[in-house]
Design brief:
Length: 102
Amino acid sequence: MVKKTTKRASRTIVHISLFVGSAIGIWSVAAFLSALAQVNWQFSQLLGQYLVAIGVVQEFHTFVDFYTHIKGVEYIIAVMFLGLFPVFYKYLNTATSSTEAT
């Protein structure tokens, strides 16, 4: 009796999950196609609007704003390099068994 109830419950959960997943998938495809239709089916235009909306691409009104943004990105790249270079150096200078024998 317990196994039948467990099978029925698990089957119900699977069906509910499939229904919810399908509904979300249909909604997302409809939203994507609607957005493409609004920009005359130009994917690059849609991607550009998305990047502006999430803040990846910004409009700079002055040269100082642009330079400040570029300088910030440069500092992030420099810190990443300084953090990863010692790991890379250690990886290059580890001795393997084949190089130790020669």
